Amino acid sequence: MGIVEGNTSDPSGSALWHPQRRAFTAGLILVITLVAFEAMGLGTALPTIVADFHASQWYSWPFTVFLASSAVGTVIGGRVADTRGPASSLLAALPSFAAGLVIAAAAPSMAVLLLARVVQGLSGGVLIVSLYVMIARVYPERHRPAAFGALSAAWVVPALLGPLIAGLLTEHASWRWVFGGLAPLVCIGAALLVPTLRRFGARGEGRVAARPGLPWAAVGAAAGVVALNWSVNQTSPLGLVVAAVGVVVLVPSLLRLLPEGTLRARPGLPVMVLSRGLLAGLFFTAQAFVPLSLTVVHGFSPAGAGVPLTVGSVGWSVGAFWQSRQRRMGREQVVATGFGLVGTGVFALVWALPAGGVPWLVFVGWFVAGMGMGISVATTAVAVLSRSPETERGFNSSALQISDMLGQALLVGAGGVVVSALASETAPTRGVLPLDLVLLVVAVPAAVMLLRAGRVKPV
Length: 459
Description:
Elements: H1 22-53, H2 61-84, H3 86-106, H4 110-138, H5 144-153, H6 156-172, H7 176-180, H8 183-200, H9 214-231, H10 237-257, H11 269-288, H12 290-296, H13 302-324, H14 331-352, H15 361-386, H16 393-422, H17 432-454
Helix pairs in contact: 1-4, 1-5, 1-6, 1-8, 2-3, 2-4, 2-9, 2-16, 3-4, 3-8, 4-16, 5-13, 5-15, 9-10, 9-16, 11-14, 11-15, 11-16, 11-17, 12-13, 13-15, 14-15, 14-17, 15-16
InterPro entries: MFS, MFS_dom, MFS_trans_sf
Organism: Saccharopolyspora dendranthemae
Domain Major facilitator superfamily (MFS) profile: 24-459
């Protein structure tokens, strides 16, 4: 007997809160909210963590190992979802993620904390891609934009309150509560998801394409990114050697992990996967240097300099809500609009961040850029699922996440090289303006690429 997906009937005008789906929707929002709280809270608690462990030299590694292990988990989760169904991967990922939180909360040393971050990264990667596949099975196709809008909205409260709550816990209780306090709530989210997993999460009946070596390709991609990010901060010949090795490992891994034609921007599914990586790279690279510029150039306090990031998160939610109600534009046009809005936000930074600029433009511009991301991230996810056969949804969803991760890692790393190379003791942010101009130049042809792809029938 075949799987009956969510698009077989739609008796309710609100598919998200239909009686058959409301528990899954609540569980989806709760789980993503908890993942977001942990991500937002770590940055606040990390200075205290490294001080407690006397491990300042390892400051960036909790982020690095999480990124690398997430890439591996994403690929494994996609493969398991295609071959065995998303239920099995989700039922493994949820308790594993909770276990990673518990290990981090009890960590007696930085080494154990890093082990916990590996567990969290692996299970988090499996979790996200499996939820993508479940969204395709649970919700009618025309309501999937609303489901991804809800997923994006789940990040808003953590973006607004996560750093504050983590700071209060770290200061008045212990940083360990930033991890341990979330673990029981993850179990509640899992309980909400289980009934729907039993109905919609079984293995499909279609033939799954053979893709040997995918986990090793994921390891290669993760190792390549780590190598490149490590090498950009090195001035020795060893840094150049490590960077070259990273490229040699990364490129063939990407060719295996991404749909054929992605790097050539082939119309259809490949151009959507490529667009996701470009968007993530453009947005997060520009955002990375906003607090620095506002603090150093315009004299903002650290708290004030972080407000544009919160404003961008709110804009992200607004954009996701808008795309969920967009019916007239093609998906390539919607994503091109997202590129345009992100480009507009970067253009605002060009006028706002330099000395003599108008700093309040940052707040307006980054709200607009956040809208562009909310529009585009949700739309690329919907497009990839709608253009994927059931037995390829896991692979293609994992490719979308890999593109997102690598776009961020590579462009943020390259942006750091530019800013560091042009910086001086008296002008540490001198490289930010040239970097933003380069990002702006990239955004325009990317939008044109999407518009052209929308006029070509996918092959």
